[in-house]
Amino acid sequence: MPRVTEAHEGPADRDGDRDADRHGDRHLGQQQGQQQQRQQQGRLGGRRLVVALAALVGVGVAISLGRWQLDRAAQKIALQQALEQRAQQPALSNEDLPNADEVAPEALMYRRAQLVGQWDRQPAHTVFLDNRPMDGRAGFFVLTPFQLKGRQASVLVQRGWVPRNAAQREQLPALVLPQGDVQIEGQISRAPSRAFELGTPVRSEPIRQNVELPAFQDETGVRLLPLVLLETASPEASSPSADGLLRHWPAPAVDVNKHYGYAFQWFALGALILGLYVWFQVLAPLRRDRRRRHSPDTDAA
After folding, report:
1. Exposed end of the chain (fewer CB within 10 Å): N or C?
2. CA–CA separation, 174 and 178 (whole Å)
3. Local structure of 163: helix, strand or coil
4. Are the CB atoms for 159 and 142 separated by under 8 Å?
5. 125-145: per-residue pLDDT in tens?
6. Number of other CB atoms surrounding residue 252 within 10 Å
């Protein structure tokens, strides 16, 4: 039987195997490093995409809200022009007002009116709206129904303002109410003056916080038109009129500058978001890359 001789590895063979192992480990390490680099780049790209979308949404929302404020300002300007035009139109009469079961047209609001009729002389039908200051003094707004001549309906008139007795807060002031047919002048409004109110509204009391036209009609049984007349001031604006009431009604608030200010703030916020995105996501990475290219010692370290 022939005899098999085993081959023995020499030093050169062992060195070649070690070199092959080192080469394989180096290649594997490079592959793992490249894989980790791709994963890191993928995570970085995902974060950049999220930041870009967030910035885009933020800028879009800020611009939309700024444009909305500009639209509101344009609406206020149009309203102011409409109010000025209505003030120049002829005064409305009894026949020009809508019926009690109709909705008051918007075109009638803030129009001047000259109405003829008689005051409702039922004491329970005159109400005093509390917490209504005028010229820096506390007092009441006085409201009384006015029966229109030739109409089977009345209009609730915000007649004027009277001071409140600070010593006896529940005491009602004595008012002069003309008898017979009279002519009153004023400005058409949609509802009486309204103030903030806590709890359930109190009805059937002369002193109240607010008055709602439908509820007041049900309470008194007086058929009311769906609007209110703000009786205008007397020729002597600095003194009470003949009935002892002040009528220094404020003009309708049309604040356009407020909307311009809000629009500027929203546009500035959008510009800030865009600027921060460009700086941190575009310019800052470019500056870092430029420094790395010009700093080989730092890269080697």
Report:
1. N
2. 13
3. strand
4. yes
5. 999 999 999 989 999 999 999
6. 12
First-residue to last-residue Cα distance in the chain: 66
CA-wise closest residue to 243 among 92, 140, 110, 142: 142
Reading the block at residue 70, the tokens are 């500009």
Q: Is the pLDDT of residue 181 over 90?
A: yes
pLDDT in tens, 224-234: 999 999 998 64
Tens digit of each residue's pLDDT (9 = 90 or more) over 140-164: 999 999 999 999 999 999 999 999 8
Q: Residue 299 — very low, low, confident or very high, per pLDDT cuts 50/70/90? A: very low
Task: Provide φ and ψ at 242, rounded to 5°.
Answer: -65, -25
213: which 2 tokens?
């036209």
pTM for the structure as a whole: 0.64
Cα dist from 265 to 57, 63, 66, 67, 74, whole Å? 17, 10, 8, 11, 17
Residue identified by tokens 């575009």 is: 282
- Name the residue among 219, 93, 244 with its Cα closest to residue 159: 244
Q: 147-158: b or e for each residue (b if 16 or more CB lie within 10 Å)?
A: bbeebebbbbbb
Tokens in use for 105?
A: 């047209």
